[in-house]
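forwarding from the other thread:

> can someone predict this with zinc ion?

sure thing
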Amino acid sequence: MNREKLDVDFPTELVREGEVQILVPKLSAFVKKLGDYAPSKAPVFYNPKMELNRDIAVLATQAYQRTVNREISICEPLAGCGVRGVRLAKEVKGVKKVVINDINAKAYQLAKHNVQINGLKKRVTVKNMDANLLLASHGAPHKRFDVIDIDPFGSPVPFMDSAVRAIRDGGLIALTATDMAPLCGVHPKACMRKYGGNPLRTEYCHELAVRLLIGCLAMTAAKYEMGIRVLFSYSTYHYVRVYAALKHGAKMADESIKSMGYVLHCFECFHRETINKPFLEGYGGKCPKCGSKMGFAGPLWLKEIFDKRFCAEMRKEFGNKTFRNIYGIHKMLALIGNEAEFDTLVTYYVVDDVCDKLGLPTVSSEKVCEALKNEGFKAIRTHFNSRGIKTDAPAEKVMQILRGLCTKNDKF
Ligand SMILES: C[S@@+](CC[C@H](N)C(=O)[O-])C[C@H]1O[C@@H](n2cnc3c(N)ncnc32)[C@H](O)[C@@H]1O
Ligand SMILES: [Zn+2]
């Protein structure tokens, strides 16, 4: 193979991820003191901890390709060392071309090298420009991409408009957001500025974060007369991730807007409710159950955040793969597959938080689910929180069941 010489002035090492080998900055060389976050100290970005995020991207992109059943084009406009784009080109079947881009010249060099060492030069193009400029140059109908994967530092919002304009009708947009402090309500003003919605520091703030990000995408797409269909989404402690298909048409956009609304929450008695309207009409600010002041989150996306068939397709693809983190992915796909069956349930209860507030010893989530189901309610575990339960039971019923399960406790 005729390899161009790589000339970088920092220590590197070869790592394996999925089915590719990737030259990355030698992270250990950039840790100067305890607590240093090596990926952001290195001259080119590579975060080995995001492997699961990339594994899932491979599965979702393959599931999407199978669904459309034709060759697809992919753009990764914020690529760092190129690991994600290279993996998508190598591991997803039916990919005709991938465009990898990064504004950092050293990242561009490394990504080009990684494309080369994986024998992908014919199908993968590497660019070194501003992501918005790149996407804008693909806004014309015949130049648009089937899949655009936005995986930035922090918020994907600065790239959302240009991604929406560069996606073809029916195409797939994937978004990562790592700015959890705004999305989970630590910095509500920043969330309002960026995502156009109010967050709330509740025990289910990670689900709200996903819904705020989706809501922002829906409203961005609506400006260009496009509607969205969410295929898959999830959160981890560090980030949220959303996969949505975009469909052209004013009616589709109007439908998306109808999926927007608010979540009202009482911090005193755990009561919560949704308002599926664009404005907070009828919101008196008082909890109908206990009279305390209620908080609100939104406007945000209230409808489906997973698609049952797409989840099943991803699980099928997973069966053909040998990822490093098999257990973690299996668990996530199983939980989300189940959640997709009960997608009308918005928010969840965290057993430990409710027990704590009631002064009860904590109990097993399985037992709580079982007790709720015995009383005729829906009850499932959620990937959002290992102690979280989604149910259609009202808060007072959840509390009653928890008290019942803890009868040995003197206080109750
Ligand atoms: C979180 S890293 C990308 C990680 C990569 N997607 C992965 O899976 O490993 C974000 C990257 O965006 C690049 N970047 C930041 N602003 C940019 C812009 N305006 N245009 C293009 N690249 C940009 C940074 O240089 C950095 O490499
Ligand atoms: Zn209340």
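The pocket of S-adenosylmethionine (ligand 1) is lined by residues 45-46, 50, 54, 78-80, 83-84, 101-104, 107, 130-131, 151-153 (CB under 6 Å). thats all i got for now
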